[in-house]
């Protein structure tokens, strides 16, 4: 449409006024299934809001008023077709596609089909799903680990809902590493969903899938490609690994994956906890519509999200993992920023408290207990004390138990080495370890928990007023109070005392 803006406007206004005229014997509203929406037409054509309301003889102004400035974004509601004769659908919003309301919609969908272990876990899953629709904006791609102690805890059902609402899902129960590489390698990567992940990373299968684990670890951060030699083209090829991924399975995932993940520990529904049955054919379209709405909202804000540096309640890798989720929460507003940060702190603390320490960390902790108050200890005595703990793995470590050589190998990673020390008799001179060489490693890797400050006992008083301690009568054992003693005898009483 070209020419004088005034003529264009009058032509456009005339078209919109005539949309109710008949065409081929049928009203336009009958053809399109409802009355046309002038506000949406204005937005699609790029005209300022309200221009179609001008009278036929009015002369439009080329400078719109502040209240009718040019629309830079679509209306915040998506209209459906309404029956002929009703008011324009903009007065009856159908679904909101921005702000906290769309996250609340996703929250309601999750609670409809799945019982999550805590409100914090539910908020975390909501924010993680939303973050998949803005992967181009993130420097880190957080993983979502959905794990359970037993079957029938709802992990696969949760993954179904995640598949229906996330961006560009790619779900599998098993896949070759090469296939995953080729699927991820793009500027707009899919959201990788792996069900039955315990069959991939559990038991003996873990050794054969180390390359896949390396891919998932590397893909947590942008610009960590895999390099392969292309024989056909006789050149080096860089394959992108960056993509958000969710893994569901029984038991703990590899610690390097959980360290980069939002971990949700599912459990079986208790009596009285009910959910709606999920059917992909029936319920899937509604979930995909919600996914489309999330995409419309978040992709319009990609430049803002790319520059986002939210204030994080966490540090280091945990902050990297949760930053995209907190950025989405801040963009939504409402109470979501507070909910997102609370979920980050709560789930990270829960993950850390349930993480199984590595053998080396466990050894450092057990060595501290074995030292006691000693400043030095012979290697033989240290090994004996380590092996006497029935809950520790050292008596059977390596098949034959922990040996001086294996002990030295494990501790060498922390720059802890044995020395020749002169001990009191009957030990004398022998190989051993000094407490001082453990100090730095203990402080960095397994610091002792801080003791809670001593709180003196305070008796409970039901009254909020201060308790008066003056005029207190201190009684001897078995001494009656004045109120309990009998009255004195009468003056004319007879007898002996």
Would you summarize the structure shown here?
The protein is an alpha/beta fold. It has helices at residues 5-17, 28-32, 38-45, 100-113, 119-131, 155-165, 177-184, 198-201, 205-208, 210-218, 255-258, 280-299, 302-306, 316-332, 336-354, 359-371, 379-387, 404-412, 439-445; strands at 22-23, 26-27, 143-148, 169-172, 191-194, 226-230, 235-239, 245-250, 261-265, 376-378, 419-422, 429-434. The chain is built from 19 helices and 12 strands.
Description:
- There is one protein chain.
- This protein is of the alpha/beta class and 497 residues long.
- The chain has helices at 5-17, 28-32, 38-45, 100-113, 119-131, 155-165, 177-184, 198-201, 205-208, 210-218, 255-258, 280-299, 302-306, 316-332, 336-354, 359-371, 379-387, 404-412, 439-445, and strands at 22-23, 26-27, 143-148, 169-172, 191-194, 226-230, 235-239, 245-250, 261-265, 376-378, 419-422, 429-434.
- β11 and β12 form a beta hairpin.
- α4 (100-113) runs antiparallel to α12 and α14 (316-332) packs antiparallel against α15.
């Amino acid at each position: 449409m070209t020419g004088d803006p005034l003529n264009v406007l009058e032509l456009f206004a005339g078209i919109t006024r005539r949309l109710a005229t008949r065409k081929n014997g049928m009203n336009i509203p009958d053809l399109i299934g409802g009355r046309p929406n002038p506000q949406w037409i204005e937005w699609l054509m790029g005209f300022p809001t309200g221009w179609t309301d001008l009278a036929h003889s009015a002369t439009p102004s080329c400078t719109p008023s502040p209240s009718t400035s040019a629309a830079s974004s679509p209306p915040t509601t998506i209209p459906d077709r309404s029956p002929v004769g009703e008011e324009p659908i903009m007065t009856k919003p159908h679904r909101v596609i921005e702000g906290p309301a769309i996250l609340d919609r996703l929250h309601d969908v999750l609670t409809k089909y799945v019982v999550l272990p805590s409100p914090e876990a539910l908020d975390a899953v909501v924010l993680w799903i939303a973050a998949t629709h803005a992967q181009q904006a993130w420097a880190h791609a957080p993983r979502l680990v959905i794990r359970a102690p037993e079957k029938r805890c709802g992990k696969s059902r949760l993954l179904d809902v995640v598949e229906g609402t996330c961006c560009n899902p790619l779900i599998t129960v098993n896949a070759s590493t090469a296939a995953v590489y080729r699927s991820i390698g793009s500027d707009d990567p899919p959201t990788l969903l792996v069900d039955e992940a315990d069959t991939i990373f559990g038991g003996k299968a873990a050794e054969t899938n180390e390359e896949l684990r390396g891919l998932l670890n590397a893909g947590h951060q942008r610009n960590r490609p895999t390099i392969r030699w292309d024989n056909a083209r006789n050149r080096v090829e860089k394959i992108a690994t960056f993509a958000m991924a969710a893994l569901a399975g029984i038991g703990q995932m590899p610690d390097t994956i959980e360290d980069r993940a939002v971990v949700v520990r599912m459990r079986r529904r208790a009596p009285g906890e009910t959910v709606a049955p999920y059917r992909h054919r029936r319920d899937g379209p509604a979930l995909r519509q919600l996914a489309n709405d999330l995409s419309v909202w978040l992709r319009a804000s990609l430049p803002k999200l790319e520059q986002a540096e939210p204030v994080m309640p966490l540090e280091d890798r945990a902050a990297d993992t949760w930053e995209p989720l907190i950025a989405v929460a801040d963009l939504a507003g409402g109470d979501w920023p507070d909910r997102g940060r609370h979920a980050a702190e709560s789930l990270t603390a829960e993950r850390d408290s349930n993480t199984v320490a590595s053998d080396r960390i466990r050894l450092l902790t057990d060595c501290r207990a074995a030292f006691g108050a000693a400043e030095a200890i012979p290697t033989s005595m240290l090994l004996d004390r380590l092996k006497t703990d029935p809950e520790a793995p050292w008596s059977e470590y390596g098949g034959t138990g922990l040996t001086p050589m294996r002990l030295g190998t494990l501790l060498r990673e922390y720059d802890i080495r044995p020395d020749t020390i002169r001990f009191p008799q009957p030990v004398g001179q022998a190989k051993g370890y000094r407490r001082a060489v453990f100090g730095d490693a203990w402080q960095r890797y397994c610091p002792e928990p801080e003791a809670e400050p001593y709180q003196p006992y305070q008796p409970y008083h039901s009254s909020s007023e201060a308790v008066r301690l003056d005029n207190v009568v201190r009684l001897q054992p078995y001494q009656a109070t004045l109120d309990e003693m009998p009255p004195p005898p009468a003056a004319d009483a007879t007898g002996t005392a």
